[in-house]
Amino acid sequence: MKPFQQLLLAPVALGLLAPLAASAGEISPSQRAEISTYMDQQNIDSFKAWEAQNQVTSVNQFSDVKPTDWAFQALSNLIERYGCVAGYPNGTFKGGQAMTRYEAAALLNACLDRITEVTDELKRLMDEFEKELAVLRGRVDGLEAKVGELEATQFSTTTKLQGDAVFVIGSNSFGGNQGLPNPAVGVPAGAANAFPANNRRNWGATVFNYDLRLNFLTSFTGKDLLYTRLRSGNFNNSPFGGQPYNLMALDRAFSPAGGADVVNIDRLYYRFPIGRDFTALIGARARNTEFLAITPWFYKSELLDVFSLHGAPGTYNKATGATFGLMWKQNVKKGKPYFAISTAYVAPRGDNGNPNQGGLLGERSRGTWTTQAGVAGKQWRFAFAWSYVQCGQNFRRGTSFAQPAVDCPNITNNFLGSENFGTSASYSNNFATTFAWQPKKSGWIPSINLGWGYNAMTQPELNPQTATLRVGRSSVRVPTFATVPTFNQSANRGASQSWSVGLQWSDVFIKGNQAGMAVGQPVFATSLRNGETPQDGNFAWEWWYKFQVTDNISVTPALFYLSRPNGQFTTAGQSSSVLGGLIQTQFKF
């Protein structure tokens, strides 16, 4: 330390430490003799010599300092970080003894010297790396400017924006030998006229469509999610929007309410945790298949919509509307198998205040209550699901005969004893079981995905006929008998089934590229209420290869085939099929 620094610091240090020090008169003759051997009161450099002679490198060198002492940690830090604590020549610290002004001066001087040495070393390093520090300082200033610009222009500190756009270019070939409309009784006009020649006239052109999504992901706690999706598209008049057969619809084929190119609010819900194992969802517009405890399949083509429904379109029917849901997942270590259960109620007409047309938990809500339970591991998944589906909500994807919703009878026709005669709204109980497996590593072995569904339709009284009876002065109508439906009537359906198998390969030829194939029978009638044998069989296939051009752009050429999409509405003994080809390009941002 420079003489001038000593001159300034010594009086200040002695003055600050005066209350802690003992006066010279309080030092015993033996202590005074000991101090005088290494300290000259008029020369602070003598303190340095004494400090250097008795400096320690570890608090354990003091024989009278124990880990239980209240100042043990403080002494340890001073010694190890600054090396400025000295003891007495006999190896003791004498922590319980009063400190003299000389001892205080020596201790403070040693610590100040160490700090000065560190400061000088830092200054030397700063001079040596002056150019590098200047570059880093410039970069930091640039980053600060960019951060400031982003903060000034961002619309929210809690919301992230994600989006993707899908382009579809494709056409369809309609084959088969059905040459005229189906003349059978009970066939709807649209299905009767869906024969090959008519389909080619109305839907045979090559089309170019798009589907655009903008997703706003908002979190207030880091664990919750307020999800808002804006969506638009122009599939309203496209065959890939599900015309003339619903089975032709693609998974990414949005037809906005209000017409093509109109922007709709497609999703709006809030999802949040309850404790460690439960998650709840509430929303004005949510979907049952987006709140499942276990995603049933690994297969994901995003092409034909029917193959996004895990082999059970009736159960996983993508019901969308006002939603309430609760989910439980077993808390296990990452990668370990777990059990999970979820349940969700969706009312597509939950916004309608007329109880004869909608509302929540009403007979006209078109509601779907889906409950799923299953177990999943890193490479496999098994799940069972049940959906209670009210009248008016269709079976999502199936033959033209099997896909429409169960009819809703006239609930204002209140017969005498209606509880017994069953004039309440119709419904279906739909069941699904799925299993999926995928290999540990990509290669020639694909993921294997299996799904099966069964749908039981219930209409307590089928087309009841009534008679008017006089009861006192009043007239009431009572059911007399039910009519037997014709072969092709919607009300004739008693039960239906479905199944699918999906295979998907990863890193095919080039890392990141994928290929897949799926086959199955979408919903088809297996039981008729009039006792006849249904003629509703149909098969669906799709084949595709996905080129991952960049992390954000992919191109997927695909083919699909529908053997008999009109099902039972096809003229008996004749055929009507579809072969479709398309190129789907996706941009993610």
Automatic annotation (TrEMBL):
The protein's name in its UniProt record: Iron uptake porin
Organism: Cyanobium gracile UHCC 0281
Residue stretches making up the SLH domain: 58-122
PROSITE patterns: SLH
Keyword presence, Coiled coil: yes
UniProt xrefs under PANTHER family: OUTER MEMBRANE PROTEIN ALPHA, OUTER MEMBRANE PROTEIN ALPHA-RELATED
Entry-linked InterPro entries: Carb-sel_porin_OprB, Cell_Envelope_Struct_Comp, Por_som-like, SLH_dom
A Pfam family annotated for this UniProt entry: SLH
Signal peptide boundaries: 1-24
Claim: Signal is one of the keywords in the record: yes
Alphabetized UniProt keyword annotations: Coiled coil, Signal
Top-level taxon in the UniProt lineage: Bacteria
Regions annotated as coiled coil: 108-153
Family per record: Belongs to the OprB family.
